[in-house]
Amino acid sequence: SLPSPSRTNLFIAPHTLTRTRLSRALSSVQTQNEASYPPKSILIVNKLRTEPVVGAIGELLDHVRKTYPGVKVFSEDRPDIPSGTDVWRPGPHSEKIDLVVTLGGDGTILHAASLFSLGAVPPVLSFSMGTLGFLLPFHIDDFAKGLEAVFQGKATILNRMRLSCTFYDKERKKMGSADDEWQVMNEIALHRGSSPHLNTIDIYVDGQHLTEAVSDGVIVSTPTGSTAYSLSAGGPIVHPSLSAVVLVPICPRSLSFRPLVFPSSSSVTLCIGDRSRAAAGVSMDGRVSHVLNPGESVTVQASPYPVPCINRSSISDYGDEQPGDEGVGPGKEDDWVRDINNLLQYNATFRSKALLRYSGKT
Amino acid sequence: SLPSPSRTNLFIAPHTLTRTRLSRALSSVQTQNEASYPPKSILIVNKLRTEPVVGAIGELLDHVRKTYPGVKVFSEDRPDIPSGTDVWRPGPHSEKIDLVVTLGGDGTILHAASLFSLGAVPPVLSFSMGTLGFLLPFHIDDFAKGLEAVFQGKATILNRMRLSCTFYDKERKKMGSADDEWQVMNEIALHRGSSPHLNTIDIYVDGQHLTEAVSDGVIVSTPTGSTAYSLSAGGPIVHPSLSAVVLVPICPRSLSFRPLVFPSSSSVTLCIGDRSRAAAGVSMDGRVSHVLNPGESVTVQASPYPVPCINRSSISDYGDEQPGDEGVGPGKEDDWVRDINNLLQYNATFRSKALLRYSGKT
Amino acid sequence: SLPSPSRTNLFIAPHTLTRTRLSRALSSVQTQNEASYPPKSILIVNKLRTEPVVGAIGELLDHVRKTYPGVKVFSEDRPDIPSGTDVWRPGPHSEKIDLVVTLGGDGTILHAASLFSLGAVPPVLSFSMGTLGFLLPFHIDDFAKGLEAVFQGKATILNRMRLSCTFYDKERKKMGSADDEWQVMNEIALHRGSSPHLNTIDIYVDGQHLTEAVSDGVIVSTPTGSTAYSLSAGGPIVHPSLSAVVLVPICPRSLSFRPLVFPSSSSVTLCIGDRSRAAAGVSMDGRVSHVLNPGESVTVQASPYPVPCINRSSISDYGDEQPGDEGVGPGKEDDWVRDINNLLQYNATFRSKALLRYSGKT
Amino acid sequence: SLPSPSRTNLFIAPHTLTRTRLSRALSSVQTQNEASYPPKSILIVNKLRTEPVVGAIGELLDHVRKTYPGVKVFSEDRPDIPSGTDVWRPGPHSEKIDLVVTLGGDGTILHAASLFSLGAVPPVLSFSMGTLGFLLPFHIDDFAKGLEAVFQGKATILNRMRLSCTFYDKERKKMGSADDEWQVMNEIALHRGSSPHLNTIDIYVDGQHLTEAVSDGVIVSTPTGSTAYSLSAGGPIVHPSLSAVVLVPICPRSLSFRPLVFPSSSSVTLCIGDRSRAAAGVSMDGRVSHVLNPGESVTVQASPYPVPCINRSSISDYGDEQPGDEGVGPGKEDDWVRDINNLLQYNATFRSKALLRYSGKT
Ligand SMILES: NC(=O)C1=CN([C@@H]2O[C@H](COP(=O)(O)OP(=O)(O)OC[C@H]3O[C@@H](n4cnc5c(N)ncnc54)[C@H](O)[C@@H]3O)[C@@H](O)[C@H]2O)C=CC1
Ligand SMILES: NC(=O)C1=CN([C@@H]2O[C@H](COP(=O)(O)OP(=O)(O)OC[C@H]3O[C@@H](n4cnc5c(N)ncnc54)[C@H](O)[C@@H]3O)[C@@H](O)[C@H]2O)C=CC1
Ligand SMILES: NC(=O)C1=CN([C@@H]2O[C@H](COP(=O)(O)OP(=O)(O)OC[C@H]3O[C@@H](n4cnc5c(N)ncnc54)[C@H](O)[C@@H]3O)[C@@H](O)[C@H]2O)C=CC1
Ligand SMILES: NC(=O)C1=CN([C@@H]2O[C@H](COP(=O)(O)OP(=O)(O)OC[C@H]3O[C@@H](n4cnc5c(N)ncnc54)[C@H](O)[C@@H]3O)[C@@H](O)[C@H]2O)C=CC1
Q1: Nearest residue CA, atom 5 of ligand 1?
Q2: Pick the CATH number of B163-302 from 3.30.465.10, 1.10.101.10, 1.10.287.3510, 2.60.200.30
Q3: What is the complex's ipTM, to 2 decimals?
Q4: How much of chain C exceeds pLDDT 90, in percent?
């Protein structure tokens, strides 16, 4: 059954859970995400199958087979699934997954989360082939350590909030079937798309009219998504453990319409104005879905189902802890703070450090 | 005694308390702010004494005397205190105040809060002479209704978070006396002031180095302060019931150093770089205080003492409620959302609505 | 024949011509725009035909018939042309127009200019029904005075620069027919449109690679267009008498890619990156045209054909002048500076001036 | 004698002169900057005297002595002048300088220009020890080639516009002596400095009131200065060969007060509002000078004396040219476009290219 609203809060208060040991987190959310601990099944998610990636997946599978022999490994349904894995298809009757392992960039994690759009997401252990990502992946070379931290119940998680989106027609009737709800990890964006005209969107917060936006569109973003489209559109960078909703206009005509941040308990409704010159295309985490016409609307709220992402500091912490130590102090080894400076190159001075020589004809 | 850290959280989670009836809020925080309910003492705070203001204060005092006869009324110590009020001086042994009534703009409320810099702030009922303010005052004509809502325990409050600031010398020893802590309601701003040179500020979040800011300075703001200096410097607008800390650079050299929002549990340290070409003047809520030299620093954290501001919707809700109704639903009648559109003139179209006639010589 | 490059400069240096008397301006550009002075033909351009507008057009036509009897009046080809006007169709063999009169908003002037996309634009006298517009229309009630200033050769003009856009295929061959060039008065914008993916656009200035933009798109704008889409996307406001080209990225991933301003002698080429994940839709002055695919490009340059807009101050100056006075001093009565404050509501204070009363249930 | 206003325009139209051969540029401006060609005197300007710098100066002096034997070399008056150079002091009767050679960062070039605040600036050949600078220095290793290009009259120059600033008291009388005018290469900035209060500045363009700025201050910048303070405050990046004036508010209360760009023929007056809560400190190119009190003002205009900076592409072009080739085509080898991408790291992707490994305890 769906979590009751009162439980929801527990779930979406990422800061409380953030540094909780995964083992405890899992037991406390058991009924919801049904993920067993230690994991009995793993889903591997990966988009590009370049040679180094195929090699890395092979090694990882070998390692799992040897080290965690009873564990079943699944792959998404596609022609080139790695040998030794079974096909897994999303849906209400899909097989239970206890751990998701992703290999790729931020987009791969977004995709993995989207596979669990109906309810709880199993813990996500993400690897990159070497580039730093905003969603804070482990380096692929650390896969054994990462898995060990998970299987020994020592990994800590960052619950990344999601937003659930419900669409309504002109009569404020829910569009689609009863449980047709969309979960986004980054953002939902309404955009004029290829219409040359500005659209007009009425924005309501908790039922109160906030403003009428005349613009290219509007973004409602999670803290996780604050470094994605929202940032490009002028939004602030929000720490992923804050429970908040970010509202950012895209190229608004009104210069005083600046980005806003609301508590995650707020519900934001975007309604295409009756006389809007353009409809609005909807994209969620970068995937195009609906078109909303004048009078139609979408309501966005914190989802009861965050994405439990395993912290990279799970590794560096590992082995440090004292018996009885049930959690990691707030902020200690915050992967996000550590990485954001590199990711955004805050300190990039204007001057190239390199010795630049301009001689003769270059 | 000071609230223990664990109690702190209760206190600084404004959203929980936001729409709580004042009567309950007060009893639950009793030991901290010691404000009695119903109020036995009122402090009137006001800066400018123009004629209409003096008249309004007179009427208000008359009303209090007649309607709430036992209540003592205090004034700040200044030559022109209204007759019938006693002088009140801030400090550890000051007389207990159960309600603060302010008359003036946003600056008057900032000033009132600053009078209670050592501990809890009594509930604040604020009035303006007619202009809409960001801190959401009542209209002065509604003073009787406002007081009635308070005395009948029906007023709801918005706990506006404050930040406490502690200053350290080059050896990381606390400057000043042991309990020398500053509470700000808007922000603390470090600025190069009249030095022509950029300063260099190392920023740490929860002890981790975030970045080195080369800029005019840095602002650490509350959600309340997000519409003040922080907004002018490019920061987002943050709903005052969110528990968060906003970090905004002032004219930074690095174009990718964008405003950041952290959970209110974060502690932010700003340390003037050892080789910074300029010192940094500190201003807190618009009052200048310290100068920080290279190596010196300030640590900013959510204060255990928010400012309990009485909601204007206390009036419109009044009389509506059912027996047993212990709180107001979230977001119902959110003064802030209702006002922000007017305050920022989001909808100000570029075209003046007026019929503009340009004829002959103007 | 097309103007030679050397003549071009004369033409696109709006500042020189800005305050020149129309009569002189026309004679000096005669061979190009072929507009006779005093005007023998007028084209009326108008989009919406609401009742007050129809009335206004009627009055204006009456006035022209009586006051300037030999003058022929044309209308665009549409079912509801005003009686007494002849149909006019744009094209290489269209009838010669000596004066364009527009009635409507900024969009109407854009449309009027677009009718003369192959060469010179006749002087444009624009009227609005009362709202202030960025393209600085006269108030409709002043139509007689406006026409008088024109017919007496006393009107001064602001030459609003246009940009000419040439499209190239992957082999850098010109797309379309030989003289397929587009003239824009506001801007050319490349945008990912309804693709969910960022596109990659290589930007060259005078043949040198400036940068690779990963973004929603890129705007190349005139000073006139700087208050239109460019402004919403974060661009500066550029005085229309400056000869410059504005380059503004739309929601770029790189935070340091800020708006740029180049001399109008620069040529800007936008080329869709070979590996761009999305194509780019092109819109020019708000009208959608091409789609550019990876490898295809557009080159944008100052057009030899500006739009000569009649200054509103032509009226207020009128009658003031001394014999022999051949021009109006720079900046004297600059409509743009006078209006921009109102248009942008710079001075809009945050506080509503209105006395806001919140009492009882609102 | 001072150049007459009519000559001024020639001089401040940098685009015309930009790519002109230095030899021609010098002869055409001869009467003004009196710089002889080929140079007979060189002024060396440098701030820091670190060991590598002292070495480089030594080598450069040796080279000049050997290669251009008759040329006199001067140094600024300071204790540690290089041997073999004479002291030079700025002022109306200072010795004539035909070439300025700077060694250092952007600040050194600003300083060199400030030495010629009364009139024309000799051509400036600037070197850096290896870092890329916004003012486009040569690499020090190329000093022989740089000098050769100058002495052979093959160097091209970029005339960087300056602004001249005149200060007025409350009665609009000029402050200081009759010819007390300041020339800035980057910008003049008015700032509240260490006052905690916003100041109010009335801005006039060509005598017309543009707006009243309530802010930390206002910047009036050249295109050269557009990448300095102006950029940090949110201004656009302007190509240095455009003749324009940039106006940027610093932390304005009004969100719609956006950066503006005017033709260089505009005169901008900033007047401290009569009721401004704060005075404004003035800094010019980063040097603090006046304080302006309420009622006092400064008028800023394009200066007749630009700074003729020798283009780095003088070297790469060198040797290429055909006899009779009198200039370099516009935009060909534009140092600025070539460098700006590196300088601003537009293309800095968010992801570090480095292979980041996080293993064990880091
Ligand atoms: N103008 C812009 O900045 C636009 C951004 N997007 C973003 O792209 C996302 C979809 O990503 P992909 O499927 O990978 O599409 P994609 O392949 O088009 O990549 C989008 C870029 O955004 C990055 N990204 C994704 N999530 C991020 C996050 N939470 N923080 C920082 N960077 C993040 C990716 O690493 C990639 O560089 C959308 O959710 C949206 O946020 C989509 C359209 C336009
Ligand atoms: N460039 C800027 O925007 C600057 C802003 N300030 C702000 O001024 C505040 C002090 O205010 P006053 O004592 O009244 O000084 P003040 O009389 O100089 O007024 C500052 C302005 O800020 C407004 N303001 C104050 N608190 C606000 C809030 N929370 N949200 C929106 N607007 C607010 C006031 O109503 C007033 O319009 C400081 O806390 C700082 O936030 C101070 C310096 C520069
Ligand atoms: N997000 C945005 O701000 C967008 C803006 N546009 C602008 O719309 C223009 C087309 O205008 P319409 O045909 O009237 O379409 P429209 O009816 O969609 O109106 C666009 C708005 O822009 C205003 N506008 C037009 N030219 C202007 C100028 N030079 N300065 C200031 N405001 C101006 C119009 O008055 C109108 O308010 C395009 O050239 C483009 O600049 C187009 C798409 C998105
Ligand atoms: N918040 C800010 O960005 C501030 C910037 N400044 C700038 O500093 C300049 C003075 O420079 P310095 O004497 O070197 O002082 P400084 O040593 O304080 O350096 C200022 C920085 O600005 C850079 N800079 C100078 N001129 C530049 C230009 N035209 N384009 C790009 N970067 C430039 C310098 O390389 C240096 O990194 C002023 O003219 C002003 O533009 C001054 C105060 C504050």
Answers
A1: A229
A2: 2.60.200.30
A3: 0.91
A4: 67
